Amino acid sequence: MNTAAATGRGSSLASKEFLTGCGVLVLLVVLLGFAVVGNRTRRDEGYPVHAAFSQIDGLDVGSDVRLAGITVGHVTAETVDPKTFQAQVTFNVAPNIKLPVDTAAIITSDSLLGGKYIALSPGGSDHNVQANGVMTETQGSISLEQLLSKFIFSVTDTLQKAKSADKAPNSSTDTQPHGGLSDQP
């Protein structure tokens, strides 16, 4: 009879552990759901603004839109205009932020290897960007590879010019005309 009692207690304990595990799993799923829905709601707040860029390398849907270093919106869509071949970016701006129409949208990096975001630099106009308005002052992203390539080309070009300058005779010091001053008596 001891074995039956032990078996009954063991299955009861396993059942409680199973139910506790299921409860924790359900709680995690609910919390994850709230996080996703809350995040989506936060990103959908505000008014949409459109901007065209020549390059948006590294900018993704969901990337931050920042004003004075503070996140005021997020990128909601990216497409290519088939007529101009420019990247068309749509982003939301918090409803309490009223941007002048001459505000510049600049794609920049968090750090050397970090993600990209849109930095807003307000202009001085008295008129504000309306919902679904277009920002005309934009600057696309600068690729790290392009910068390194330009730097390497510049250094190589400078070194080649320095070498060729060393090889060319310097006419003012190589020869002295007859009758000129000389170190020899």
Automatic annotation (TrEMBL):
Residues 46-123 form the Mce/MlaD domain. The keyword Transmembrane helix applies. Signal peptide: none annotated. Residues 162-185 are annotated as: Disordered. Pfam families: MlaD. GO terms for molecular function: phospholipid binding; phospholipid transporter activity. The chain crosses the membrane at residues 18-37. Keywords: Membrane, Transmembrane, Transmembrane helix. This is Outer membrane lipid asymmetry maintenance protein MlaD. It comes from Neokomagataea tanensis.
